[in-house]
């Protein structure tokens, strides 16, 4: 479409048609639509727009006079019809081009949106995979900790049962030891009775018994004095013996009393210390330290040679 032909078309059109063409050019000049045209298309649109403005602003008489002189009525009519057809065709092509440009723009935007959606999906999937992996690791760690805790509890129960068995065995051994010592004391008392009867016989015959023999008998009598043990006292001796066997390095009177007091609440620390001092063959007091740092501990010596 040359400028001359375009001018001919404009001059042949009526005023409403020219106004419609101006509206089309104005719509094409909008930025969103204008960006879709190439440089050549923009140049042509500018040229056509200026020509349309010139045609509407300037008088058209000279151009019509020249055309009337050069062309006959039939030629002029056919030329006007052809120009009108070409103008309609160009208008339709322009509209189609605008529609195609809009479609291309929308298609490009759609592709951009699709790409963005794919990127977001990919990022979300990677984040989800990482979080799932972290959750699995944490769950495995928790399971291992629970298993270890159960194993530790079972071991602790086994150790507690062993400790209870050992304490029971120690108590039984201490009771046997006390019974044995009680039997020895009983036998000693019976021996003392025999010795006293022998002394009475010797007293009846004082001339026959020498003085040295009398001293020896008196010493043996002192060593074999009968030991009277009350049931409560024997119970306390057994408890203290069990406690000190578990503490081979000894324990203080207060520490021992805190253990025995649970079974014998009536017992006082002073009475406990008297019992410990009374049975020196079973309990021995060890003193360590000097001055303010002195420590007094009782130790079980029933198994000492």
Automatic annotation (TrEMBL):
Region Disordered: start-end pairs: 59-87, 189-213
Ecto-NOX disulfide-thiol exchanger 1/2 domain location: 102-185
Bias type Acidic residues, positions: 64-76, 199-209
Molecular function as annotated in GO: oxidoreductase activity
Biological process annotations from GO: ultradian rhythm
GO CC aspect terms: external side of plasma membrane
Cited Pfam families: ENOX1 (PF23267)
Protein name per its UniProtKB record: Ecto-NOX disulfide-thiol exchanger 1/2 domain-containing protein
Species in which this protein is naturally found: Phlebotomus papatasi (Sandfly)
């Amino acid at each position: 479409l040359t400028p001359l032909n375009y001018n001919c078309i404009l001059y042949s059109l009526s005023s409403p048609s020219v106004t419609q063409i101006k509206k089309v050019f104005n719509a094409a000049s909008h930025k969103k639509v204008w960006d879709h045209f190439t440089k050549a298309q923009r140049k042509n649109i500018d040229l056509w727009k200026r020509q349309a403005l010139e045609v509407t602003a300037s008088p058209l008489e000279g151009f019509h006079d020249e055309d009337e002189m050069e062309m006959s009525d039939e030629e002029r009519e056919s030329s006007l019809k052809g120009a009108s057809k070409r103008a309609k065709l160009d208008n339709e092509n322009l509209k189609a081009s605008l529609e195609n440009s809009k479609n291309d723009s929308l298609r490009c935007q759609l592709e951009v949106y699709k790409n963005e959606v794919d990127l977001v999906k990919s990022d979300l999937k990677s984040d989800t995979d990482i979080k799932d992996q972290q959750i699995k690791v944490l769950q495995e760690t928790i399971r291992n900790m629970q298993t270890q805790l159960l194993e530790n509890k079972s071991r602790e129960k086994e150790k507690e049962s062993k400790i209870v068995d050992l304490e029971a065995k120690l108590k039984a051994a201490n009771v046997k030891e006390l019974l044995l010592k009680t039997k020895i004391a009983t036998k000693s008392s019976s021996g003392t009775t025999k010795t006293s009867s022998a002394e009475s016989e010797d007293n009846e015959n004082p001339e026959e018994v020498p003085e040295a023999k009398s001293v020896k008998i008196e010493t043996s009598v002192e060593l074999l004095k009968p030991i009277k043990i009350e049931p409560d006292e024997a119970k306390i001796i057994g408890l203290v013996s069990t406690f000190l066997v578990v503490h081979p390095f000894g324990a203080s009177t207060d520490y021992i009393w805190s253990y025995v007091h649970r079974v014998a609440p009536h017992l006082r620390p002073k009475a406990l210390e008297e019992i410990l001092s009374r049975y020196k063959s079973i309990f021995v007091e060890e003193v360590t330290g000097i001055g303010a740092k002195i420590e007094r501990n009782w130790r079980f010596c029933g198994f000492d040679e």
